[in-house]
Amino acid sequence: MKLAISGGKPIRARKYPQWPEVDRSDVRSVESVVKSGKWWLYAYSKDEFAMSGEGTSRVEAFEKAFAELQHVRFAYATSSGTASLEIACRAIGLKPGDEVITTPYTFVTTSTCILNAAAIPVYVDIDPLTYNMDARLVERAITSRTRAIIPVHFGGVFADMDALRAIASGHDLKIIEDAAHSHGASLTGNRWAGTLGDIAIFSLQESKLLTAGEGGLITTNDEELAELSWSLRHCGRSRAGKWYEHERVGWNSRMTELQGALLLSQLSKLQGQNARRRRNAQVLSRGLTGIPGITPNPQHPQTENDVYYLLCLRYDSAQWDDVPRGRVVKALNAEGIPVTEGYCFPLYENPLYRNVAFNAQGSPYLTGRPGPIPDFRAYRETCPVTERACRSEALWVAQNLLLGKEEDTQDIVRAFQKVFENRAELRTKGEG
Ligand SMILES: Cc1ncc(COP(=O)(O)O)c(C=O)c1O
């Protein structure tokens, strides 16, 4: 069969399911808030300045439902996963010049939350199989300035939290769990994403497993961190204080009632969607075992509820006669399979690290005083797995590609098979 990229018939012409999935319940839910005229979180507050009204907040109802889903004591909704990360950094007491150990294979704000606290991200390489922070490398990255660890459950695959927790408790470090990709995920023994560190965050941005376009959550079982997060999200107010009394420097990171309403109706679909993705991920993983050089990243061995923000595949060009990954991606895209290469460079290679100014104490730009700038490019030497994942190995199958029927998933396998069989042609074809 001729490759579609060379003018052949593509494996599929139909698009994969659109994300987010929208139905009448979403419209009704948002419509009722629009009609109520109560659009902000404090529309139902009894405070004299909050324009109080009868009824219950959709945001608070959503927080309660999400806390139940994730088996966590406290869940507070915010304007974004990024806002949640910044609040979490402040809540754990991060100070200028502190160091935070994190992963270079993630979205930028897992690190900019550290920089915005005038602290310094310290990167350890990722595990070659899961692409999560490699817990075996964390201990040697700890210095006298280290205060916290921020792991990510990349793609929904759990980081090695047992190992990270043991290290953290041995060195008196806090853990902020970035669970942006992990709505509904759990390990055996009732261990849920969002409960495995001191404090955790979820993203509700449009690509995520649960979304209102934008939005985020902070979860924790720690009462003190919960109160601080509540306050920091709410301009630094305290529950006991008067409306215009602010205890600390905070942010307005509140979620709107319109988002809360949409999230409540979307939440009722999450488990079904996660189950569909789970089935299709199995179909895909099984199908791909027949194709050399394409290996799905495994789930954590103790996973009970596995979720798929994306199914990450590892591409081994040596088994494809050295065809570069970029050509395989272009060929698959032409076949109607929109896989991507994911993060094309490690986080520490971002231009922001060349633009950030550090002061003499080695803390970042907030003081504006120039000083010795850590050479973030040195991580090229210490993070070879991240380099490989970004530059030649990772292939991302986004979550919406796993929302179709089994037949739709088999098309992904068929496309890989077809492109593999025609790899000789790709070796001579074009750039990238
Ligand atoms: C791992 C990770 N952390 C944090 C975020 C930030 O979330 P948000 O886009 O809601 O600010 C994202 C978003 O893509 C993410 O993937």
How are the SSEs placed, and which strands pair?
Blueprint (H helix, E strand, L loop, with lengths): L23 H13 L21 H13 L3 E5 L2 H11 L7 E4 L6 H8 L3 E4 L22 E5 L10 H11 L2 E5 L7 E2 L3 E2 L6 E5 L12 E5 L2 H11 L23 H32 L5 E3 L6 E3 L4 E6 L9 H10 L17 H4 L23 H4 L1 H10 E5 L7 H16 L1 H5 L5
Parallel strand pairs: 2-3, 2-4, 4-5, 5-8
Antiparallel strand pairs: 1-9, 6-7, 6-11, 8-9, 10-12, 12-13
The chain binds pyridoxal-5'-phosphate (PLP).
The site of pyridoxal-5'-phosphate has 14 residues, from helix 3 and helix 4.
**Distance, first to last CA:** 23 Å
CATH class value of the domain at 24-267: Alpha Beta
**Which outline best applies?**
globular
The tally of strands reads 13
- Helix content bin: 25-40%
- Structural class category: alpha/beta
| Unreliable parts | none
Explain what the structure shows.
This protein has helices at residues 24-36, 58-70, 81-91, 109-116, 161-171, 223-233, 257-288, 325-334, 352-355, 379-382, 384-393, 406-421, 423-427; strands spanning 74-78, 99-102, 120-123, 146-150, 174-178, 186-187, 191-192, 199-203, 216-220, 294-296, 303-305, 310-315, 394-398. The protein is of the alpha/beta class. The chain has a domain at 24-267: Type I PLP-dependent aspartate aminotransferase-like (Major domain) (Aspartate Aminotransferase, domain 2, 3-Layer(aba) Sandwich), CATH 3.40.640. Helix 2 (58-70) runs parallel beside helix 7 (257-288), helix 3 (81-91) crosses helix 4 and helix 7 crosses helix 12. The protein is globular, with a radius of gyration of 23 Å. The protein starts with 23 loop residues before the first helix and ends in a 5-residue tail after the last helix. Pyridoxal-5'-phosphate binds at residues 80-82, 106-107, 109-110, 152, 178, 180-181, 203, 205, 216. Residues 80-82, 106-107, 109-110, 152, 178, 180-181, 203, 205, 216 line the site of pyridoxal-5'-phosphate.
